[in-house]
Amino acid sequence: MIFYKQLLRNILKVRLFVILSLFFFNSLNAQSTILIPNGQFQIDYSKQLIVSNFNILAINSTLEEAFNKIQLDKIYTFSAPISSVEIGKSYPIKDEEGHRYQLFFTELPLIHITTNNIIVDEPRRFASFFMAESNGMIVNEHIGIEYRGASSQNYPKKSLRIEFWADSTGEETKDVRLLGMREDDDWNLQAMYNEPLRFNNVVSFDLWQQIDTLYYIKKEQKAVNGVNMKYAEVFINNEYRGVYGVGERVDRSQLKLKKFKDDEIRGELYKGSDWTDAVLMNKAPVYDNSKALWAGFEYEYPDAEEIIDWENLYNLISFVEKSSDEEFYLAYPDKMVVDNLVNYFIFLNLTYAADNTGKNLYIAKYDKNEPYFYVPWDLDGTFGLFWDGSNHNNTTGLLSNNLYDRLLKDCSENGFVERLKSRWKFLRTQVITYENITQMFEKQMEYLSRNGIYQREELAWNKYIYPKTQYAYTTNWLKLRLNNLDSFFSQDCKGFDFKDNIPYSFILFPNPTSSLLNIQSEISDEFYIYDINGIVLKSGYISTGLNIIDVSDLKCGIYFFKPLKSNPNKFIVQ
Fold it and tell me: What per-residue confidence (pLDDT) applies to 1?
């Protein structure tokens, strides 16, 4: 009943919006002025940029003659009279004082966040959230807002996490439905600053949902293994921040995990948030149930305020680490969902998501005595990109962790390798085809290009995007990657070549150091150095043999050196 009441209210809002629109146009048409209602435009006075998502069909169908003025917060004059407007086109206008602006029309939702507080990584600060869709639908609510992410917080455009509040204190939250996605109080606004084409996360999540289906979906038909994400343009305190991905969160509600009840742990959810031996399934160190962080994992569900118990996850990693081959191959299908393991290995290597072999990866359990499964997250470093958005050009080799290293030796009948090869062959007929994936690319790029997003991102961040050049690189990378994976999956199991999966050895010295860090490496590779909070401070390349990196600018403390194709090592600056 509540749903239908809300639907009726929404329909009445749209009808009222259309009636008012016709009234505005008919009353002002004789003056060659078009009126845009409040909420259907946002202005960045500093950048001299105005974006409106008012329905241009309504504008163009109502006008009978050319117009030269538009009323927004005040009246602006076009540089020359125009008879219609176009999505994504830049229109030079000026106000009555002679200040010049660029006006754009967009189909994307417009979000304006206003706050008197400084936004930080924690805690969430009170703010007001206003979102208008091009169909006139409005969301106007209180929120708590904070920055999210690790290395991405070093970028000028930062990702955000918002929580809808029932009041200004946040003592009570409020579920809100955004852009046709789920109804929830907790949402992400993904900055996508390091995605040159701004569609890696969107396409990757869509592709993952085409590849994998939750094994319990018949029981929980609304469960989603991943997230949905829609585009919106964001202003914060009248500053244009560009396009964001409004995304659902990976949590108990998204996966429909069984709730913690009567002091009994049923559904479980853990997030790999740091590069450690544990997230790579190499080693399970001693745990402490008084802390919600352990060995690179964050305790997501049950809520840490209700209970913290790392024993089950510890036992899973210990099993991968310590079990004999006989025990491992006999018992792993009871420990984890094999179909999900197969699908994730394919997805991981199809997209070459090097940042998602342990970190940026959730481990979930639907109910007690059920197997675990993987849920991907933060998929910006995909389709030929490093995590920082640069092209790596690598279409060969495989990504893995210790769990997959062991699984790839399972050559038994209907074992992991046989199921992996069979699944790849099936997916290559319809889902993992060059045509299907490039169509997904084209759909997103055409939408963003048509709406002038790349142009406005350049205006916002003074960072030019070469969409055609980058698109050509991405599609060519995909073609080469598919060819290489076809070759890999066609191998006989006994000759299954996964040597590239095995982390190579390197030595750091002196450790501790105060100025120079020496790296003796077996191969050439990309690397990055991050602190204990996961914030990347340095990146670059090492070559085979001895490499020397100056770390004298780092403060005293603990840091991690992480090559792309190997495990991280800790070092100390003193």
Answer: 46
